[in-house]
Protein 1
Amino acid sequence: MIYKNMARRFRSLNSTEEDNKDELLRQLRLKNEALNDAIAKFDSQVEAAINEFWVDVESHVDQLNKAIENINGFVVKIKEEQEKYYYNCEDRWRESESGKAYQLWRDAWDVDIEEIYLTCPSIEQIDEVEIDTESFEGLPHES
């Protein structure tokens, strides 16, 4: 008799076990939903923080590029004056040691500082997590 009851017992879930299975499945779905809500909140807040702080970075990039523009403008002005002076001098002077030294000095001013360009970094957003509830849910209740 015990063997017969055990055989039937292992051939199907009883109502308590079915209720437990349903509750476990419900809890799994709730926890999965809560996790996905937390992920969505995290992604949103990280993106908002990046955008908020990026404004400050952009402002400093603009200020730096303005300083670079001022330097490059100054260099161009000096170069123009150097060229004007150099070509207003006689050929004899340009070929002299003084003229050659001047030309080296003038050539040293051949600089152009490049402005910088940055793009806002992006964080790879976390995808929603999907739990395979169907495998558990689809388990048969009996053999």
Protein 2
Amino acid sequence: MKAVIGLGNPGRHYERTRHNIGRLAVRSFLERCPQLPRTENDFSVVYRLSDLALIVEPLVYMNVSGIAVKEICERYPVTPQECLIVYDDYAIPFGKLRVRKRGSAGGHHGMESVLAELQTEEIPRLRIGIGTEQPLSDLIDYVLGEFTQEEQARLPEILTRAANAIECFIQTDIETVMNRFNAPAEQHTKESPQAR
């Protein structure tokens, strides 16, 4: 079994902020699978896609995301290597996707928590770019800020590509996702898997 976990902050105040784009991507995927069985654990809401995968929305704040991911690995037959952590990355241009099989947190506090709790860097991840070329006076205000009108206009297409990557992970493996979705954005629509 695999698990896909969309990192973000709970609550309406954070719902449409850049820092929550990983959670929005997971919800975009869930729209393709209506009426999945839903369970609420101590630290997350879990949707079960038959015996293939768990789709997880943590109920904890971003900086302690690892608590929720560790609970999933302990409660279900899922190893860290079978997880896909979906989250935002300021170091990547807005809307670009980057998939990795392992690695450091790259300064992302949510991923830092996941690596600390699971005690391994062997955790697949899908990073969604929220970067900007504009100079910023406060990075925290930027990532916790809501999307601009221009970003909002691009968001549906970005979330569709991210949901395609999630679907590809569930159906295949992380290497296939890397090969298909670390390509330029215009190639993603050609490479996306068919919904099942």
Protein 3
Amino acid sequence: MKRTDVSPRTQWLALSLLPNIGVKTLRNLLAHFDCDLTAVFSAEATELRKVPGIGAKIAREIRKADLVRLADEQAQWEGEGVQTLTAADALYPARLKDADDHPPTVFLRGCLQPEAWGKCLSIVGTRYPSQVAKILTLQLSMKLARAGVTIVSGLALGIDAAAHASALEVGGTSIAVLGSGVLNVYPPQNRLIAGRILKLGALVSEVHPRLAPNAQRLVSRNRIISALGEALIVVESDADGGAMHSARFARGQGRRVFTFRLPASGNRQLMRDGAAVLPSDLDQALRYLLS
């Protein structure tokens, strides 16, 4: 097989997996090459550099992309149950697509039904929650799941794990957005929860299905967590905690941000920034969130 013989879908995947190409640069490439991806990969570096957002480094990456190898890898991971959704696919989640910086491609593993994308709330927080925060998370996630809400979180230790687990406990649906590939679950301590999510929801990621996590990927996935939910709930966080990235992304995406009146520095910061405070009476909180 030649480099230019692979399918347009594999060509799209190759571009979307390059670390320095986002959806805006992809649009520029498509516009410049009249939506002909084969022409993109056949182009000389000088022609690629005429595209806004494409410099010498990205041009080299496009020229070096191993499309034949990627086609083989694609067949392997699809055989392991990985689905790919591009921004052009009808099943790509609409709420995520509305975000300006949505990923060109998302990878999924699991049994998520298309309608589960519809009513989602995102719940995040510290890896080291107080007992009060953990109980609030467990109880609120259960109540939301029983009400038919899909719980979105990041599979991290602490609040994230509690949100996923409690939704699953009552037969609800949960989506875990990873900072690693969906075939390389991180953190390893939560692989049991990930296995349960595969039966009642989905693991989601924007990176190559076998890729390991790093700090940048863990931060970047927060914009997907916030975008997938109608609103974001930060149960408890320090002011420099990872959950605060989700809050910043959520505000930029026009999502409502909620928190609880807890003494953690992040909660106090969120309240100063205008986050709505959920009541400790969780039945009242549930009515507020679903209104």
